[in-house]
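Fold description:
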Amino acid sequence: MSIENNGHGYEFEPQFGLPERLPQTERILWQGSPDVGALAQSAFHLRKFMLYFALLMVARVYPEVTSGASALEILLSLKWLFPLAAIGLLTVWTLAWLTARTTVYTLTNKRVVMRLGVVLTVSFNLPLSKIAAADLRSLQSGHGDITLALKGEDRIAWVHLWPSVRPWRITKPEPTLRAIPGAAAVATALSKAWALETGLSARPAPAPRASQAAAVLQASAT
């Protein structure tokens, strides 16, 4: 079974998060979406934008402070930066919210399905037999990213997956379940389902610290 792109537009999904109803031999093990806050921080770099605007404000008020300006004059010097920062941060948060709202990840006993897209909806079927390895990167509050490395020459364009893709892997994109709640439990379920489907042993994943990746599974004969 090759990776399948089922096109766009599931205004009336026959089954939530899926382009078609599952066959009787297939069942959902887990289904979820990115957490908005975790996605905004990890994929849209909200904290970095906040730091950027904070530095701009410091740079702007520093000459006023050193020249002995009054508090009102200092505030007036920021009259353009405040709305600019508010609009920028609100835009980033809105993008994260829209992405989380329209993204659904599904793990079955046969495959991983990724329903993506804010404007045009696409879904990708990733058969467990086509997954060579998976990594877990823990975020805060039990959230995390699960990255899937695919076998063979199958490719999905990086731009079609973003932000549900591993950063900086452009030539061979790796689909990623981004900022999902209870990531460790999902990784365990993925590892068990993959082992049952492929008949291979899955390497257990130690609990990684935040920003560190640990192997969830890796193809190796028993």
Remarks:
- The chain has two domains: 4-10+27-34+103-218, 41-98.
- The two ends are 23 Å apart (CA to CA).
- Confidence is low (pLDDT under 50) at residues 5-9.
- The helical segments are 36-42, 46-66, 71-76, 81-102, 158-161, 183-198.
